């Protein structure tokens, strides 16, 4: 019989590590299910989950930045660093995609066939690309993330969904090292 130690009741660092694991698991499920001919609903679920984790992890690093001495002293510094980093820049676009998936159940990524030229090796998740925001259903009138639409259109629209999730994973790995997680 193995005795398991109880999880900390409220340890932000522990919960951030748990969220990072959730993101990576959902990202891998998306990659494995985003194959040619996959039913959109089979891809929508893991992508939506990965996007949910993207936001909660980003919020977790922001919270940590505001509370932990020695790590970026405030959220503004975290956001500034994120906006200057090529991998971190996609997070606002991913937040917009998450909000559209979560609030309007919008299919933000759709399968597109291979077109020439393409680069080998082809990553399976590259078949599913972010749709342009004008291809999505209109947002609810209470939609609060309208200011993130330009980031979504500039950094995600038309690109492989797997590519931006990989960028987020790289940013998070860098921030994990910075935070000593």
The helix content is 55-70%
The parts where pLDDT drops under 50 for at least 5 residues are 114-118
Supply Rg.
Answer: 17 Å
Q: Total strand count, please?
A: 2
Number of DSSP helical runs:
6
Portion in beta strands: under 5%
User: Globular, elongated, flat, extended or rod-shaped: what is the shape?
Assistant: globular
What class would the helix/strand composition place it in? mainly alpha
- Please report the distance between the alpha carbons of the first and last residues: 29 Å
Mean pLDDT across all residues, rounded?
81
User: How many independent structural domains?
Assistant: 1
Strand order of the largest sheet: 1-2
Largest sheet: 2 strands, antiparallel
N-to-C series of helices and strands: HHHHEEHH
Describe this structure in words.
The chain has 181 residues and is mainly α. The chain has one domain (12-179). The chain is 56% helix and 3% strand. The protein is built from six helices and two strands; from the N terminus they run H-H-H-H-E-E-H-H. It has a two-stranded antiparallel ribbon with strand order 1-2. It is globular, with a radius of gyration of 17 Å. Residues 114-118 have low confidence and may be disordered.
């Amino acid at each position: 019989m193995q005795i398991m130690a109880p999880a900390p009741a409220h340890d932000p660092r522990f919960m951030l590590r748990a969220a990072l694991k959730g993101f990576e698991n959902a990202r891998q499920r998306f990659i494995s299910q985003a194959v040619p001919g996959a039913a959109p609903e089979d891809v929508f679920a893991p992508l939506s989950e990965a996007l949910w984790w993207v936001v909660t992890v980003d919020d977790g690093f922001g919270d940590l930045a505001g509370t932990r001495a020695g790590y970026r002293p405030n959220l503004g510094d975290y956001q500034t660093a994120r906006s200057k980093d090529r991998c971190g820049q996609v997070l606002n676009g991913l937040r917009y995609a998450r909000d559209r998936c979560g609030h309007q159940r919008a299919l933000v990524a759709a399968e597109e066939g291979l077109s020439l030229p393409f680069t080998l090796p082809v990553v399976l998740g590259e078949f599913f690309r972010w749709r342009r925001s004008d291809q999505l259903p209109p947002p609810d009138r209470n939609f609060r993330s309208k200011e993130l639409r330009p980031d979504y259109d500039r950094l995600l629209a038309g690109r492989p969904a797997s590519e931006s999730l990989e960028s987020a994973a790289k940013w998070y790995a860098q921030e994990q090292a910075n935070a000593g997680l």
